[in-house]
Amino acid sequence: MITASHNPPEDNGVKLVDPLGEMLEESWEAYATILANATSDHQLLENYAKIVAECHIRSDAEARVIFARDTRPSGAHLVSILAEALKVTETDYADYKLLTTPQLHYITRCLNTKGTPYEYGEPNEQGYYAKVAASFKAAMQGRPFFGPVTVDCANGIGGPKLRKLTKHLPSASEGGLEIIIVNEDVVNPDRLNYQVRACGADFVKTNQRAPPSSHATTLTRCASLDGDADRIVYYFNDFDGTFRLLDGDRIATLAASFIGDLAHNAGLGEKLKVGVVQTAYANGASTAYVTQDLRLPVVCTATGVKHLHHAATKFDIGVYFEANGHGTVVFSDLALKRLGKYEPQSPAQSSALETLRALTALINQTVGDALSDLLLVEVILAHKGWGPKEWNLTYTDLPNRLVRVEVADRSIFKAVDAERKLESPPGVQAQIDAAVGKFKGGRSFARASGTEDAVRVYAEAATRSEAEDLAQKVAAIVRHAGE
């Protein structure tokens, strides 16, 4: 997938999808890096030959690659280069043109499971819309919606694709969901994720305010996607005009609560283990809500969707979202078999089971998908009879602060325990622990950036001023260690 996600339009990059439509297996990243960093054509060929030998790859084996791109101006040129490379290596390929990243993940799994017991759907864009729309209707079970939802598409590929999806859904006049789409200008590529015009999930999360174009009125549901539509965050303005963000943590707890209740109501509560996967960046209040109120297990992993997705597959039903809004729900093969074969014992069990089965099709289990996640949230809110305020009242976020600290060499900061503690430089973690111990409900950790010589410091405390104070104290410790 040729995209740079939430980055500005002049950037571009690539996301690699494995044969099951999931993110590339981590062990293959090293090979991709070796090839990408070759300094000459000759070295590229040498590196290629070494990988072939090391991985025992048959040179006569047929290879097929599919690809797509988002709306960035450089995408078409990069596609032409990719196509030439695939021709040279005699690789069969298909260009799916403009898609969201999750749509390409979906099509990849469909192609590779077609004709098997695990068939995932029709391997094309229309098949994606048909599957999502049909399962959304089935999951709703005729429940009413409470007003429209306004969706900011970051002037990216999510705009035209959401517009297409709505044509497969019942209209508001037919009792369906009214989706108001804003920031869908893909004609002017320079507006993609445009911070000055204020749009996109990253803008909302970073600036803690609604895009002006959302025209967010009191208690109106609003959502923002990122540039390639694999992330989504919700938000609303409260009665007093206060901006309220409903981020990935909130979506995860909402989904876990609903799915856990459905499993119980269907009579499968003891047979399906539901769990939540978070990173250290998840707000401590959300973790407490899941473990204490929902009574569900929580696993913490290193930052990065690939880590969360892998951990989620260990549960029968694994729910994972990063705070930035990237996430999904994964159903194990065993869970799908049990859902398919289970015979409900009452009308109530039957209703819960039908909804749960519909969710397995509505949710894009290959990767975080802003469009299907949008409809998942709307299904849950309709079933619960909630607006955004009721959703926000499930727990109160602990005040937190994220600080970026520039350092000379980020590689000296090595984290362990799912990136919650530093093992080096020596003594730094002890200093952080001492600082945290002085604050009620305090929590803080430092993690090296994966892309720049900087360390990110996250801090939580009982009050906003204390969270700020703790963050600055830990930042000073990191800054001194990095000099």
Question: What can you tell me about this protein's structure?
Answer:
By secondary structure, this protein is α/β, with parallel strands linked by helices. 40% of the residues lie in helices and 17% in strands. The protein has helices at 26-36, 41-54, 75-88, 101-113, 125-140, 158-166, 201-207, 248-265, 284-293, 305-312, 333-341, 347-362, 370-384, 388-392, 428-436, 464-481; strands spanning 64-69, 92-98, 149-152, 179-182, 221-225, 232-237, 243-246, 274-279, 298-301, 317-321, 327-331, 400-406, 414-416, 421-424, 443-448, 454-460. It has a 5-stranded mixed sheet with strand order 4-3-5-6-7, sandwiched between helices. Strand 8, helix 9 and strand 9 (298-301) form a beta-alpha-beta unit. Helix 5 (125-140) runs antiparallel to helix 12 and helix 15 runs antiparallel to helix 16 (464-481). It is globular.
